[in-house]
């Protein structure tokens, strides 16, 4: 996979309901590093570790990412 052609599908605002907005959180790094930070965020009650995506590839060797989508109400 080349960096120039790599465009991850993060979804669109149409995935959200009219009264909420989606916010995407992305963790990028080595598989161990990404898992470590996700578990640290879980311990801090920031985001549950089970709500992140599976590992997704990046254009860089030995690098992955996981995505977490959070929904917030909009008034």
Task: Kindly describe this structure.
The chain has 75 residues and is an alpha+beta fold. It contains 1 helix and 3 strands; from the N terminus they run E-H-E-E. Strand 2 and strand 3 form a beta hairpin. Residues 1-7 have low confidence and may be disordered.
Mass-distribution shape: flat
Order of helices and strands: EHEE
Q: How many DSSP helices?
A: 1
- The pLDDT mean sits at 84
Task: Furnish the topology, listing elements before pairings.
Blueprint (H helix, E strand, L loop, with lengths): L19 E10 L1 H13 L12 E2 L6 E10 L2
Antiparallel strand pairs: 1-3, 2-3
Summarize this structure briefly.
17% of the residues lie in helices and 29% in strands. The protein is α+β, with helices and mostly antiparallel strands and 75 residues long. The protein has a three-stranded antiparallel sheet.
Provide the descriptors you would attach to this structure in a database record.
single chain, 75 residues, disordered N terminus, 3 strands, alpha+beta, 29% strand, flat, 3-stranded antiparallel beta sheet
